[in-house]
């Protein structure tokens, strides 16, 4: 299931950060074509450290500034959600903070945008040190310096807050949920019993995004159940409209859909307890009730979490890839 979230690409982040090679350079000193191409190649999304290093070497040969190279490395680690490696860049950012030259930048239109990112890197460093007071101070300053970059900072902050909260959550497996197709209740402990983990798939039959993702979910569910991971899909309510639409969508899937199809509890919703705000969302739970992952089904971290449970679990091809 190789679907990439829109916000994950370097180009999306560059747009949010105000990227413009012409804006970043004096209009009368636009670099030659070779330098421009090297810069664009450097800023493109990279699949590996080795590929990035090769692009950096080529950029240096073409005269791309060290400022631009630092910015490209920053974007690379942000894309890959490598907080520790962002934090490790702090000495470089602090050293260059007062030497910043707008004409040497590849992605910043204003000096305040650059200073905001320096604050963001300081926030990541504070987070690595578990210094929540400093984290809040620096991330607040980052928002203050560059409000228009909030769309780039916010997902990272939300993810960090969610991960911190999930470490305090323990799923109650005695919870019993209504079945979508039958009137009987299903206790979660009967699903997790003897299994390596439990995947909770939060979705809605009224959501176009969930409908589009359903074939990929079905393939994922089959892969997980084959490796001893239980799967339960939860819709948010048991209204006739939701139930009828859910049954129709389940019946439209090829073969016998894997897992159990349930309705979230109206009295104590698991979705609320697990802070599910977007659909579809995957929540991976250990046999002890600990949350191992909570997020988008297309997130690479989801599959990394699964591989910590069973290294043999492989990511099925997405329905989009199968059509190519």
Shape verdict: elongated
Q: Would you count the extended β strands for me? A: 7
Query: Overall mean pLDDT score?
Result: 86
Question: What is the distance, rounded to the nearest whole angstrom, between the alpha carbons of the first and last residues?
Answer: 13 Å
- Please, how many domains? 2
- Main sheet makeup: 7 strands, mixed
The total count of helices amounts to 16
Q: How much β-strand is present in the residues?
A: 5-15%
* Rg (C-alpha, Å): 23 Å
Strand and helix order: HHHHHHHHHHEEHEHEHEHEEHH
Instruction: Give start-end ranges of low-pLDDT stretches.
Output: 1-30
Structural class: alpha/beta
Task: Kindly state the percentage of residues in helix.
Answer: 40-55%
Question: Order of strands across the biggest sheet?
Answer: 2-1-5-4-3-6-7
How would you explain this protein's 3D organization?
The chain is of the alpha/beta class and 324 residues long. It has two domains: 155 residues; 147 residues, 3-Layer(aba) Sandwich (Glutaredoxin), CATH 3.40.30.10. It is elongated, with a radius of gyration of 23 Å. A hairpin with a 5-residue loop joins strand 6 and strand 7. It has a seven-stranded mixed β-sheet with strand order 2-1-5-4-3-6-7. The N terminus is likely disordered.
